Hints:
mainly beta, Lipocalin, four-stranded antiparallel beta sheet
Amino acid sequence: MGRKNPVDPAARGDGRRGRRSCCRRVPGQAVVGLMALLVAGVASVAQAQDIEPRMYSNTPVGVNFLIAGYAYTTGAVPFDTSIPITDARLHTSSAVIGYARAIGLWGLSGKVDVVVPYSWLEGSALYNGDPVSRVVDGFNDPRFRLSVNLMGAPALRLKEFAGYRQDIIAGASLAIWAPVGQYDPTRLVNISSHRWAFKPEAGVSKTLGRWTVEGAAAVTFYTDNTEFYNGSKRSQDPLYSAQAHVIYGWRSGIWASADATYFTGGRSTLNDVLDDDLQQNWRLGATLALPVNRLNSVKLYGSSGVSSRTGNDYDLLGLAWQHRWGGGL
């Protein structure tokens, strides 16, 4: 999706291809981009640091997606960016399983997805100048999300989708993280953040031939963690974020993206004392999606922190596999 599809004769009405061939060709190119929706569950274990190309795009109603992925990170704490530690040297591995479904909402296209990561963490850091270490594994907080395209992407069944051409899409989403992952209140570094998080976002996508440019802005709100490190209460201000993507797509369905994100805010309060941990961080990344066949795709991605006020940078590499079915595929 994210671009025009000039290779489908049925969409031109010239009759040189039967319906069966058309319907197989279009989804293979159009819905491979939805992989970004679920892979972000691996790529952004920190809740406001998502780098998600092709987030707002159209997909035939009724198509389902199953994702399995793996990511490796090294550097500062990726699970909770405002934990008051310094000189973090942590290594994490995360496996993810996810599910998404393309839906119609009052004539508009939308998606629902859920991501459940499992993570392994080991390493050390400094807390008030004293060394702390941690080796732990367990489930991270699952993420649930609803997104809807408010303009430029009507809800279409597979047969109707062959004639769809993207121009400008504007959409919105709401992601929710539930605090049910691995957590030990006697330890400073954990996999779960042990609090609810809510992230509303708005985005826009515009095609320019084979190129697509995208941008999105979001804010993440947090509830209090009343069981933070030996009975302390920890609060955090909203974290504001923006991301941008430049994407190129080939006729074969392969696409590649250059990605960037910036986030700021998120000062924390520990036992009613405001900390000097305002975040102002940049991350850059790249994504490559490769269709294997009509129903399967593979995605490679990576990102790195390039600027950080609070020193919570990390490097990430990941791989994901996607399988899709339903909706007439």
